[in-house]
Design a protein that fits this description.
Blueprint: E1 4-10, H1 17-27, H2 45-50, E2 57-65, E3 68-76, H3 84-92, E4 96-102, H4 109-120, E5 124-130, H5 139-150, E6 158-159, H6 168-178, E7 191-200, E8 204-213, E9 215-217, E10 221-224, E11 229-232, E12 235-239, E13 243-246, E14 248-250, E15 254-258, E16 272-275, E17 294-300, H7 306-319, E18 324-330, E19 334-341, H8 344-358, E20 362-364, E21 371-375, E22 383-385, E23 397-412, H9 416-425, E24 429-435, E25 440-448, H10 449-453, H11 456-463, E26 469-480, E27 482-489, E28 492-493, E29 499-502, H12 503-520, E30 528-534, E31 537-544, H13 560-580, H14 587-592
Length: 598
């Protein structure tokens, strides 16, 4: 065990984590020339297309140093704030972390956020200054920033270039000397932490775990503490580039386990695996629960595919434990699921993965956040509002509380004015402004989570020309004046388009929604009124004009009453059509609400 090192790589988006992982694999000879490719650990098509890491990936490497063989278990983690849960799971399975900072971009918001996460778990931090070969790199200044953040010496910061391979040897030597070996006991009863799992259609659920104490052998009987079920170990092994079966995996190591589980719900990330024989082995604590930030409904395009969608979501949840869902129904869309996501990018990725990996096209409703309502009759009772339709009648309502966040934005000093205007527009209150260097400022705001759900991140990048980095953490609930804005099509309420909005913005947003829907909904044979309403009060209206046939074309000459008769007949037909006609709403209309400012 003294020669095992478990570590992860943490950094902001695009600071070179995956490229550094590629170089470490090359240097330790873990991949052959044939297997080499860029972003080797990013196995999903979406990851390669977008150039981002979505899933954390575990891989084992072997390295010889001063005549001794060392085993490295590396977990490459995502950098985007929406996948921070993946990072927290990786950190729970490690003793050390490489903190990668881009020498051109310096420390960004997500770097600081991930660093605090690692320090809370008592991980040994090795700072790496990446991309020092770039012409725009500023190594001396960025090294000072890292020293200021970590309180380490400037000699501890390793200059490297993942592209050219510079500094890789120093990084490996620092891992050996600084990262502590695992502290487990080989002779204690088995205790292993599940940090990930994937679904294999042929072999069932493959569980990825880290052994804390004892060992797990092929043919053993093990128990998952969360479900209390016993399983036989059919296959166990190590996570190299391809899975490598072994007879046993012992304390300190990371491996995979196949027990023939077919039900996705039986494997929970953060669960503890113990031996069926030992009765009193405690669960491993310190694993945080996922907190969804954004809620949206996901419905199958064809209502008959509901069960198939459920099965697809369960399999996807195995691979992405931060996805939370419960069944719900909508008058407009039938049966579907209310899903919790960590952010808008997470929602987009889940929707794309359902379509690609499971062939399930879905309709996504307007995302919102979770509120708490209190009624006058019983002010102590909390009514959770995950969906605008859950909001009690305004006449019974005492108050509504909405979640607030502490937002941290790091930017160049030139863009402070623009960013402040954006945050104030989004109901933000500035709480702190500190200059990290004469050029770089950290702004801290308290603002409602609902305001950042839609387009905040995109607009922040626009007003700062891409230089602002953003991170947030929840700070609890505050009372707010919220109203429910309903959309009516042809007099019928469309519950999937309802939204809870602050009273000051309700009129403006209702008007924009009506205008947007007028453009997107195809014209019918009859006039369609599109209305926005708060309770019984209509606050905005647009009309989608009818496609009209010229019924008077055949009248040439003669008395005007002939034309009038035909027009009256047409009018009656249109009226009847409007009473029985139904309006199809295209998928773009549901998502258009998110892009009201375009």
């Amino acid at each position: 065990m003294k020669n095992i090192r478990n570590f992860c790589i943490i950094a902001h988006i695009d600071h070179g984590k995956s490229t550094l992982a590629d170089r470490l694999l090359d240097f330790t000879g873990s991949v052959t020339e044939r297997e080499k490719k860029d972003q080797l650990l990013d196995s999903m098509d979406i990851e390669r297309e977008r150039g981002i890491t979505i899933k954390s990936h575990a891989i084992q490497m072997e390295y010889f140093h001063q005549g001794e063989k060392y085993v490295f278990n590396l977990i490459d983690t995502p950098g985007h704030v929406d996948f921070s849960y993946e990072v927290s799971r990786s950190i729970a399975a490690c003793e050390g972390a490489l903190l990668v900072v881009d020498a051109a971009q310096s420390i960004q918001a997500q770097t600081i956020s991930n660093l605090y996460l690692a320090l809370e778990n008592d991980l040994e931090i090795i700072p790496v200054l990446n991309k020092v070969d770039l012409p725009s790199a500023n190594p001396e200044e960025v090294t000072d920033d890292i020293v200021g953040l970590l309180g380490c010496d400037s000699e501890d910061v390793i200059p490297a270039s993942a592209k050219t391979g510079l500094g890789i040897k120093s990084i490996l030597e620092a891992i050996i000397s600084k990262v502590p070996c695992p502290k487990g006991d080989l002779n204690s009863p088995l205790q292993a932490l599940i940090f990930d799992s994937i679904y294999n259609p042929f072999r069932g659920v493959e569980t990825y775990f880290r052994v804390i104490n004892g060992e797990i052998k092929k043919g053993d009987k093990v128990k998952f503490l969360a479900t209390g079920k016993d399983y036989n170990v059919d296959d166990v092994g190590l996570l190299k580039l391809k899975q490598e079966p072994k007879n046993s995996v012992s304390a300190g190591d990371v491996g995979y386990l196949i027990t023939g589980i077919k039900e996705a719900s039986e494997v929970k990330v953060g669960d503890t695996i113990v031996s069926s024989k030992s009765i009193n082995t405690p669960a491993i604590d310190g694993f945080e629960e996922v907190k969804p930030m954004v809620f949206a409904g996901i419905y199958p395009v064809d209502t008959e595919d509901y069960e198939e969608l459920r099965s697809s979501m369960e399999k996807l949840q195995l691979n992405d434990a931060s996805l939370v869902f419960i069944p719900e129904s909508s008058a407009a869309l039938g049966f579907g699921f209310r899903c919790g996501f960590l952010g808008m990018l997470h929602l987009e990725i889940i929707q794309e993965r359902l379509e690609r990996e499971f062939g399930m096209p879905v309709i996504t409703t307007v995302p919102n956040v979770s509120y708490q309502a209190y009624i006058k009759k019983n002010p102590q009772e909390i009514i959770p509002v995950n969906n605008p339709s859950d909001l009690p009648d305004p006449s019974y309502l005492d108050r509504v509380e909405e979640p607030y966040i502490k937002a941290s934005i790091i930017t160049k000093s030139d863009f402070v004015g623009n960013i402040m205007s954006l945050c104030i527009e989004k109901r933000g209150v500035i709480t702190n402004q500190s200059y990290l260097t004469p050029e770089r400022v950290e702004l801290t705001f308290d603002m409602p989570l609902a305001e950042i759900v839609f387009d905040f991140y995109d607009r922040l990048k626009t007003v700062s020309k891409g230089y602002a980095s953003f991170d947030y953490s929840p700070i609890g609930l505050r009372s707010s004046k919220l109203v429910k804005v309903d959309i009516l099509l042809n007099g019928n309420q469309v519950d999937a388009l309802s939204a809870l909005i602050h009273a000051d913005n309700a009129y403006n947003i209702g008007k924009k929604m009506c205008e947007k829907l007028r453009e997107l909904i195809p014209r019918q044979q009859f006039d369609i009124p599109v209305q926005a309403a708060i309770g019984a009060k209509i606050i905005s209206r647009e009309t989608i004009k009818a496609l009209r046939k010229d019924v008077t074309a055949k009248c040439y000459g003669g008395d005007i009453s002939r034309k009038r008769k035909l027009l009256e007949k047409q009018k009656k037909g249109k009226k009847k059509m409007r009473q029985i006609g139904s309006v199809e709403i295209p998928q773009e209309a549901f998502m258009a609400v998110l892009k009201l400012n375009d």
